[in-house]
Amino acid sequence: MRRPAFLSRLPVDPYIAALLGTVALAALLPARGPAAGVADGASTGAVALLFFLYGARLSTREAMDGMRHWRLHLTVLAATFLLFPLLGLASRGLVPYVLTPELQAGLLFLCLVPSTIQSSIAFTSLARGNVAAAVCAGSFSSVVGIVLTPLLAALLLGGSGGFPPHSLVSIVGRLLLPFLAGQLLRRRVGGFLIRHGKALGYADRGSILLVVYAAFSEGMVRGVWHQVTPLRLLALVGVEAVLLAVMLTLTGYGSRWLGFGREDRTAIVFCGSKKSLAAGLPMAGVLFGAHASLAVLPLMLFHQMQLMVCAVLARRYARDSGSLPAHPREARIPSPSGD
Predict the structure, then answer these.
(1) How far apart (Å, rounded) are the C-alpha atoms in residues 242 and 193?
(2) In this structure, are residues 144 and 114 in contact, taking their beta carbons and an 8 Å threshold?
(3) pTM value?
(4) Distances in whole angstroms, Cα of residue 44 to Cα of each of 7, 207, 209, 281
(5) How many Cβ atoms are within 10 Å of 19's Cβ, its own excluded?
(6) Residue 323 CA from chain centroid, whole number
(7) Is the Cα dihedral 326, 327, 330, 336 positive or negative?
(8) How far is the C-alpha of 139 from the C-alpha of 134, rounded, in Å?
(9) Which of 114, 127, 134, 142 sits in a 20 to 30 Å window from 63, CA-based?
(10) Which residue ranges form the domains of the chain, and what is each CATH number?
């Protein structure tokens, strides 16, 4: 679905604008008392629906066919779940002078989230890279992340007070089981999902907005936001800009050093340097509970930053390859729907 022309000229992705509007709504009208219980229950159901749809949409056969390109997929997984977490751990040296402990925990959580799928594919396509590899790499990252992200969070955030160990049980019940159910029922519901893809896309985005509203409402009621100052937010943006620049450099030069061709290097850069807002937001709601509002803030900022930077980078890659589309409309990047 194409975005209206006036939205295409906005510097902020419309879905990010909707997320920010949801945060503002939670700040002005947070759910309290019985309404908070309703919002929490609805959020739990929305998360389960999201991961059921993730499971039902992922073609297991296509994923298995893509295993022949295992070196590329291992490289992306190493960037996503090894290099990113190492940089996140290094950010502990910024506490308390640059980041608060809560913002640093959110930054570390950002580093544990799986890679994107849709936007990685879009940027790889625009840059004339290996789109098939990007599809498989993003899918593998998402599947691995459903298990590995909570485990890494328990290991690396368990002692910080922001991650309760019993959340692993919640992860299995609210994320992993719905995902597996979607995989098991894929043959039965796959046709329905294809026929109603547009409507289900809105359901995806609406579910994530509901999760964000519930998390930020609880944060407002508990006074979490009094811990953040504008100066700290500015510092966080600067740290994330450095993080993105480092990962783009490591994936670019690292893939070249490993001997990958140009198309494969392009897929590695765009899959290995980005993080999924769609997967991270519901996971944070389960993992962090009342502290989820601060935990997802770094991810929301990083998501918008990676879209803007990677859009420019993809155009440059395409121009350098000599195959840049003649008209900007031919290189239109689809809205990532929170991914």
Answers:
(1) 39
(2) yes
(3) 0.74
(4) 31, 10, 12, 12
(5) 25
(6) 29
(7) positive
(8) 8
(9) 127
(10) 33-318 (1.20.1530.20)
Query: By C-alpha distance, which of 239, 273, 237, 238 is closest to 253?
Result: 273
- Within 8 A by CB and 6+ apart from 58, the residues are 139, 142, 143, 182, 183, 186
Dihedrals phi, psi of 165, to nearest 5 degrees: -55, -30
What is the DSSP secondary structure assignment for residue 307, as one 8-state letter? Answer: H
Q: What string of H, E and C letters represents the secondary structure of 271-308? A: HHCCCCHHHHHHHHHHHHHHHHHHHHHHHHHHHHHHHH
How far is the CA of 323 from the CAs of 263, 320, 327, 331, 332, in angstroms? 12, 8, 12, 11, 15
| Residue type at 291 in one-letter notation | H
What are the structure tokens assigned to 176, written together? 């992993």
Q: What does the alpha-carbon distance between residue 121 and residue 334 come to, in Å, rounded to a whole number?
A: 10
Query: Taking the CA atoms of the chain, what radius of gyration do you get in angstroms?
Result: 19
Give per-residue pLDDT as tens, 96-143. 899 988 899 999 999 999 998 777 877 888 888 888 788 788 878 887
Cβ of 239: how many Cβ atoms within 10 Å?
Answer: 20
**Could you tell me the two tokens for 150?**
């909570």
The residue assigned the tokens 């993105």 is: 244
By the 8 A CB rule, do 325 and 318 touch? Answer: yes
- The pLDDT tens digits for 7-24 are 445 455 676 678 778 888
159-169, pLDDT tens digit by residue?
554 455 555 56
The two tokens of residue 138 are 């993003």
Per-residue CA distances from 132 to 12, 73, 181, 338 (Å): 28, 11, 26, 21
